[in-house]
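=== RUN LOG ===
request id: a7f3
mode: sequence -> structure
chains: 1
length: 177
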Amino acid sequence: MVDNPASIGEWGPHKIPNPNFFDDLEPAVKHLNNIGGVGIELWTMTEDILFNNIYVGHSIDNAKALATETYNQLLHPLEDPISHIHGKIAHLTLAWEDPLSAIQTHPETGLGLAGVVFTLFSMLAVLFSLIGSQQRKPIAKANNTDTFTPDDKQKTDSTPVAPAGGEKDKSTAKRRK
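=== RESULT ===
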C-alpha cells in the first residue's frame, strides 16, 4: 500500500438512520398460501425454451414421486408398442365397418378422414383447372405503317437520279456560284 497521511481507513457506505427498519425473525414464507406458479427469468439468444414440471419443495421423496408420475412417462410413453399398433389396426377395421362410432370413440380419425377428403378434392380441382384451360388465340396486332400494303399510293421520286456508270444530266442540276 502507498502511504497516505490523509487516509481515514477503508471506504464504507454512510450509515443513516432508517425509522422503518425492523429485523424479521419469522420470514413471511411460512405464512404464504400455496404457490401456484414459479417465474424464471432466463436471458438467452435461443428461442422457444420451455420448462415443464418444476418442483419447489423440501422433500426428495415427493420430488421423485413427481418425476415418476410425469417425467418418466415422457421417456417411456408406450409399455408395449406392438399391442398399441394392433389396437390401431383393430380401430381401422372398426372404422371401415361403422365410421360414425369410430369417429365418436376416436375424434382424431374424423379429422384425419376430413383432411384426406379435403386434400383429394383440392388436388382434383387443381388438376382440372390445369387440364381444362384452353390455349387462347393470340390477339391480332395492328397494321404496321412501315410495310407496303396494296391500298398505299405509289410514291414517286421527282428528283432525277443518274444511272450507275452513266453520264449525269447537267441541265437539271443546280450549281453554286
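=== NOTES ===
The CA atoms of residues 16 and 22 lie 15 Å apart.
The helical segments are 60-69, 71-75, 81-97, 99-105, 107-132.
=== END ===
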